[in-house]
Design a protein that fits this description.
Blueprint (H helix, E strand, L loop, with lengths): L1 H14 L3 E2 L2 H5 L6 E4 L7 H11 L5 E5 L2 E5 L4 E5 L14 H13 L7 H7 L2 H4 L7 H23 L10 H4 L35 E5 L4 H6 L6 H12 L7 E5 L6 E4 L2 E4 L4 H18 L3 E5 L1 H8 L5 H4 L4 E3 L2 E6 L2 H5 L4 H23 L10
Parallel strand pairs: 2-3, 6-7, 6-10, 10-12
Antiparallel strand pairs: 1-2, 3-4, 4-5, 8-9, 11-12
Helix pairs in contact: 1-3, 10-15, 11-12
Bound molecules: uracil.
Uracil binds next to α10.
C-alpha cells in the first residue's frame, strides 16, 4: 500500500499539466495563473502539492482533483477537501504553450521507432486522458501502424551507407495511399525537420489568393502563414492597397519550413523543384476549393508552383496573365524587400508589391480587365 501511494505521488508530479489562464480570466480576483486537473490514484494531493509549491516560485496555481484542491497564492499553500463539481474536469481552453507543446510532441514522434508496449509501460494509458498530448497518442500509433512506420523505416535505412541498389528509392516503395490531411503529409522529406505543416489563413471563398513561398521560422512555430517579419511587411502592402488580410486567402507553395542550422538559428533554405511539385497536391486542392478571381504569386517559387514549371519572375512582373479560370499577377516576395540594403530600395520593393495588390483588387472588383496576356 505504501509503495502504491508513493508511486501515486510520483505519477502526480510527472503527469500534472498546468494550463495558463488568459490574462482576462487570471486578473479576476483570486483566479490563479495556472490551473491543472488531475485524478490521482490515492489521496496524495497535499503531498504532491508541496513539490509544486517549492518549484513554481511566486506564480499562483491551483490543482483540482475529484477529492479536493490545492491552491498556491504565491506565498502559501491552501488545501481544500471537497466533492467533485459538475464540469470540474478537463477544460478545453488550451493555452498558447499547449499548442506549441502538441506540435513539438507530434513532430518528435518517430513512427519507425514506435514500441507500443514500452510506450504504455512508461506512460500508462490511464494517464492519457489528463494529458494534453493524450488524445494524439492513439492517432499517431494508428498512423504508424498504417504505413508511416514503414515509410520512415525505409527512408532511414536508405540513408545508410552500403551497397547501392540500382533502382530509384521512390520506385522501391510499394504503392500506398498518401495521407489525406496536411498534418500527416509525407510527400517529401521536409516534414522531418519542421515543427508542423502550415496551412492557409483567410476566407475559403476569397476573391484574392496570395501565394507565398514557404513558412518561415515563426510560421513554423505558430502554424500560421505570414506572421513573421515578411508577413508584417506584407500586411503593410495589403493595407496600402486598400485591402485587409481578412479578405484575402493567404497560403504558401510549400507547406513545411525548409531550413538549415546556422549556430542557434534556423536559416531559411529555398525549396527545390521536387518539393514544390510534391506540395502542389495541396495547392491544387486549395485552388479548386477557393476558386479565386485573382491569384497573386509572391516571388519565383510561388510563380513556379502556380504555373507548374520553372519560369522567370522578371518576365511576369507587370504582365498579368490568365490562370486557373481567373487572373494571375506576379510580384516580389516581401522578404526581397527585407533583404534590401537601404530604406529607399526597401520602400521601392514594397511599393511594387502594393501596386500589384492594387491591381489585384481592381481585377477582383471588375470582371474583365484589359491589357492582359493569355498564359
Ligand atoms: N514567407 C512565406 O513565403 N510565407 C510565409 O508564410 C512566411 C514567410
Amino acid at each position: 500500500m505504501a509503495k502504491s501511494v508513493r508511486r501515486a505521488k510520483h505519477d502526480m508530479i510527472a503527469y500534472v499539466r498546468f494550463r495558463k489562464q488568459t490574462s482576462a480570466s487570471a486578473s479576476a480576483v483570486q483566479t490563479p495563473e495556472y490551473i491543472a486537473w488531475y485524478e490521482p490514484e490515492h489521496d496524495v494531493l497535499a503531498w504532491a502539492a508541496e513539490h509544486f509549491a517549492q518549484r513554481m516560485g511566486r506564480s499562483t496555481w491551483m490543482i483540482t482533483t475529484p477529492r479536493g484542491a490545492a491552491f498556491w497564492d504565491g506565498q502559501q499553500l491552501h488545501l481544500e477537501q471537497r466533492r467533485a463539481l459538475p464540469g470540474d474536469h478537463r477544460r478545453d481552453t488550451a493555452d498558447e504553450a499547449e499548442a506549441l507543446w502538441l506540435a513539438y510532441y507530434r513532430s518528435t514522434f518517430n513512427p519507425a521507432r514506435l514500441n507500443e508496449a514500452a510506450l504504455e509501460q512508461h506512460m500508462p494509458v490511464r494517464f492519457w486522458k489528463g494529458l494534453p498530448e493524450g488524445h494524439l497518442i492513439p492517432a499517431i500509433i494508428s498512423e504508424a501502424k498504417n504505413g508511416a512506420r514503414r515509410v520512415a523505416q525505409a527512408s532511414g535505412v536508405g540513408a545508410l551507407s552500403g551497397k547501392t541498389i540500382p533502382i530509384e528509392a521512390d520506385m522501391a516503395q510499394p504503392v500506398r495511399d498518401q495521407p489525406s490531411s496536411l498534418d500527416a503529409c509525407r510527400r517529401c522529406d521536409l516534414w522531418r525537420n519542421a515543427t508542423q505543416a502550415v496551412g492557409s489563413s483567410g476566407p475559403s471563398r476569397a476573391r484574392i489568393m496570395l501565394i507565398g513561398e514557404q513558412p518561415g521560422d515563426q510560421e513554423d512555430l505558430s502554424g500560421q502563414p505570414f506572421v513573421g517579419p515578411a508577413g508584417q511587411l506584407l500586411t503593410i502592402a495589403i493595407t496600402r492597397a486598400g485591402l485587409s488580410r481578412d479578405q484575402i486567402y493567404l497560403t504558401n507553395a510549400v507547406k513545411h519550413f525548409k531550413w538549415e542550422p546556422r549556430g542557434k538559428r534556423r536559416l531559411h533554405k529555398t525549396p527545390g523543384q521536387r518539393e514544390i511539385e510534391a506540395c502542389s497536391y495541396w495547392l491544387e486542392r486549395e485552388l479548386r476549393t477557393v476558386r479565386p478571381a485573382v491569384i497573386v504569386a509572391l516571388g519565383a517559387t510561388a510563380l513556379t508552383a502556380l504555373l507548374r514549371g520553372k519560369v522567370s519572375l522578371r518576365d511576369h512582373l507587370d504582365a498579368p496573365f490568365k490562370v486557373e479560370g481567373g487572373w494571375g499577377i506576379a510580384t516580389y516576395h516581401p522578404s526581397f524587400a527585407l533583404r534590401q540594403q537601404n530604406d529607399a530600395d526597401r520602400d521601392k520593393v514594397l511599393a511594387d508589391i502594393s501596386k500589384a495588390l492594387i491591381r489585384a483588387r481592381e481585377f477582383a472588383e471588375s470582371a474583365t480587365p484589359t491589357g492582359t496576356k493569355e498564359q
